[in-house]
Write a structure and sequence with these properties.
The complex is a heterodimer of chains A (392) and B (376). Chain A has 15 helices and five strands. Chain A is of the alpha/beta class and 392 residues long. Chain A is elongated, with a radius of gyration of 30 Å. Classes of the chains: A alpha/beta (392), B alpha/beta (376).
Chain lengths: 392, 376
């Protein structure tokens, strides 16, 4: 900007020039992206493909748990109990044991998840009206599955108990009912508790995050390495135009990806959007700005593509998987770690799109997430700008 | 051998000249395991339960108190009526809304079963299932007490009532801390993530920077080139294991029940596969960005998701299980968890070792074969 433009016109001239130069960068970026159709195709297609794969593959539902049984009682009652306990889709009785030591070995090798021991005297105890204890050894290495196994066992044992008790009551001529509290669950938003519905929004956030950061984290540092950045330096281009020109094309690509990925979620996993499309669009846009901003920030702060790649991988894959609330509830984390999660954009996006897609949440319910995304986006882009200005 | 040695010296000098990369490679995993290890727990605690008591009798209050005594549930009353149920769930302020209907106390007093309604937020199915299980457990406790009361009142004294209890004993991880399981998994995942990146960049970086030409005019054979690139990263990998190991033992109190030597041996085999895959990608792609895309989307993500790191492989559909068995990280994680948590030795883990060795050899051979001494 040399010379003093005429008083009234300079603002207009500036915006014209600004727009013009920004468009030029945009055009250059689009051309560059177009020259590598493989990468473009991968960026748009792969997230949907992976959603398809993982949505199909991943589940927390534990079924067909391999169980070994040691029946020391060998009576009709013990056999009936084991049948009631194990004849369902949750457990597979893989072998009947003769002695305890064999069970220990099976657990160690991981051949079974649990060994159930019905003690001698089981049936006599029951007929005498006593409390009999059945032992279950559970492989606790995978604590989540172990907790589920225990839950099933307790619930099934309770059912058998109630039948036995009601039979006793009936035999003694008393009312066959007992004063017990029955919990009748009604599950909202995801009535069949399909892990798919729960996982899809989280997977979307993770996949989008990865593709945004992959798309941008090498962009500036590559120009540094190839020294094409010098050409930018001698052009009248300003850092802000440069940074925005680098991100804008990918915002568009990201939106296209989102549409494709949501269609896959709807068609294959029955994840319909209950809430407002507009709100979902706004959330996505803000998330893209933050995620891309993070990529550009990494790119402008590093000096080689190798380091940028390493930093990008460290900053995205595991954090967006483990610190986003996708799988591990954030409120269960230690306070310090909770503070770290505030810097992870998917954290807000997962919560926002879960709300909009599954629960029909309104703006009033998710605005803190949107505000946080906006703040992060502005922050990341400002840092990127500052770093770029220094280099330029 | 002489030629590999000079290449090794060149590679090591390059790594040393870039202290930032070196620091990133060795220090970042330790830092990451600290943060992620603390974050990663599927143990659901403090499920927020909002109780809408329409009964308001001594029975219903006693029931709510029993629930509150469970250390897993955080019970609070809510008086907003039916409308508020939905709002509490949608906003996520409650994970469970429990409705105790009018007549609850009357039913129990008359010795009839009473039903309560639990509205559950199923959008977070893991917490939902757990929360419901805690609720059932607490209700069972309350029921048992009620049954006792009725029995004691019954004419004819306190004749016993048969019941079956399950006494569970948990092996290997008696506190059932999911943290132990996940931290031991993180150990493998971090090793994968850091080493694969450097390997994936190895050749394509030289290609992009134009230094490949110089390598190609040397008398180095392709096997020697691959070996020279591989070895320094193996050293870095072992360094990483050595830095992360104390963090796992001292900070997370992971028991190391098996042998350290075996852990290193398995890590070495695993490194052959991750580095081999990285080099394979590196020799196939044209730009570093493509290398990044391919490794992140087609190697790291599937490895992390399908290896049993978090999602149990046993629950996956059978075609996916076949894929999972082909993933080196899967076998490495079984070995690492076996060594740490179960004290497993070579007798239990030899098949995992064989699987890793087999895939490692296969991958490295293809890396060598796919690397052409050409410029394009």
């Amino acid at each position: 900007m040399n010379g003093q433009p005429a008083a009234g016109g300079w603002r207009a001239a500036l915006s014209v020039r600004w727009g013009h130069r920004f468009l030029a960068v945009l055009k250059k970026e689009f051309r560059q992206i177009g020259r590598d159709p493989l990468s473009l195709g991968l960026l748009i297609g792969v997230p949907s493909l992976l959603l398809l794969l993982y949505g199909y593959a991943l589940t927390f539902d534990v079924k067909h748990i391999a169980v070994a049984v040691l029946d020391e009682d060998r009576t009709p009652a013990s056999r009936a109990f084991l049948e009631a306990l194990l004849e369902n889709p949750y457990f597979d009785r893989t072998c009947a044991l003769e002695d305890r030591r064999k069970g220990d070995a099976l657990l160690l090798q991981g051949r079974v998840r649990s060994v159930i021991v019905v003690p001698r005297g089981f049936s006599t105890g029951l007929s005498r009206g006593e409390r009999v204890v059945v032992q279950a050894l559970v492989d606790g290495a995978d604590a989540t599955s172990a907790a589920t196994v225990e839950g099933y066992l307790h619930a099934l044992a309770e059912r058998v108990t109630r039948v036995a008790q009601e039979r006793t009551f009936a035999a003694t001529g008393l009312a066959p009912l007992l004063p017990v509290v029955l919990v009748e669950p009604r599950i909202w938003f995801n009535p069949d508790l399909e892990s798919g519905k729960f996982l899809v929004p989280g997977l979307i956030a993770m996949l989008l995050m990865l593709s945004c950061v992959i798309a941008t984290s090498l962009s500036i540092v590559r120009e540094k390495e190839r020294q094409t950045l010098e050409q930018m330096m001698v052009s009248p281009l300003r850092p802000i135009e440069f940074v925005l020109g680098k991100t804008a094309p990918y915002v568009l690509i990201g939106l296209v990806t989102m549409v494709v990925i949501l269609s896959v979620g709807y068609v294959f996993f029955d994840v319909a959007i209950r809430g407002s499309f507009l709100l979902l669009g706004v959330a996505t846009l803000l998330f893209l700005v933050a995620a891309l901003g993070m990529g550009v920030m990494i790119s402008s702060s590093t000096h080689s593509q190798q380091i940028a790649f390493q930093v990008a991988v460290i900053a995205t894959i595991l954090p967006s998987f483990l610190l986003s609330g996708f799988i591990f509830p954030i409120r269960n984390m230690p306070v310090v770690i909770q503070a770290v999660t505030y810097l992870v954009p998917p954290r807000y996006f997962v919560s926002a799109i879960r709300g909009v897609i599954l629960k029909d949440a309104t703006f009033a319910m998710i605005w803190p997430n949107l505000a946080a995304l906006l703040a992060l986006g502005v922050f990341f882009n400002l840092v990127a700008l500052r770093k770029t200005r220094k280099t330029l | 051998m002489q030629r590999v040695r000079s290449l090794l010296i060149k590679e090591l000098t390059q790594i040393r000249r870039d202290p930032r990369l070196f620091a990133l490679l060795v220090a970042a995993p330790a830092l990451q395991i600290l943060i992620l290890g603390y974050a990663a727990t599927t143990d659901v605690r403090d499920v927020a339960v909002a109780v809408r008591d329409e009964d308001r009798t001594a029975y219903s209050r006693d029931y709510a108190r029993t629930l509150g005594a469970s250390s897993w549930l955080r019970v609070s009353p809510h008086t907003g009526g039916e409308r508020a149920d939905g709002r509490l769930l949608v906003s996520g302020r409650a994970g469970l809304v429990l409705v105790i209907p009018a007549g609850f106390g009357a039913d129990l007093a008359a010795g009839r079963p009473a039903t309560v309604q639990a509205l559950v937020d199923g959008s977070d199915s893991l917490s939902a299932v757990q929360g419901l299980a805690y609720l059932q457990g607490a209700s069972r406790l309350f029921s048992e007490r009620q049954v006792r009361v009725v029995l004691d009142r019954r004419p004819g004294g306190t004749a016993g009532l048969p019941s079956i209890a399950i006494a569970t004993r948990t092996w290997f991880n008696p506190m059932q801390a999911s943290r132990l399981y996940i931290v031991s998994g993180l150990f493998g995942v971090l090793l994968l993530v850091t080493t694969m990146v450097v390997a994936a960049m190895a050749f394509v970086k030289e290609r992009e920077e134009g230094t490949m030409e110089q390598m190609l005019v040397t008398p180095l054979r392709r096997g020697e080139l691959v070996a020279g690139k591989l070895l320094p990263f193996v050293v870095i990998g072992f360094l990483e294991v050595t830095v992360v190991l104390p963090v796992m033992l001292l900070v997370f109190h992971l028991p190391l029940r098996g042998s350290v030597a075996l852990l290193y041996a398995f890590s070495g085999l695993f490194l052959l596969t991750t580095l081999g895959l990285g080099l394979l990608v590196s020799s196939l792609v044209k730009t570093q960005q493509q290398a990044m895309l391919v490794t992140v989307f087609f190697l790291m993500m599937p490895f992390v998701m399908l290896s049993g790191f978090i999602f149990p492989v046993e629950n996956m559909p059978s075609p996916i299980r076949v894929v999972a068995e082909a993933i080196p990280l899967r076998h490495y994680l079984i070995a690492v968890r076996g060594i740490f948590l179960k004290g497993a030795g070579l007798a239990e883990l030899w098949d995992e070792g064989l699987a890793l060795l087999g895939t490692g050899v296969l991958i490295l051979t293809s890396a060598v074969l796919s690397f052409h001494k050409r410029l394009d």
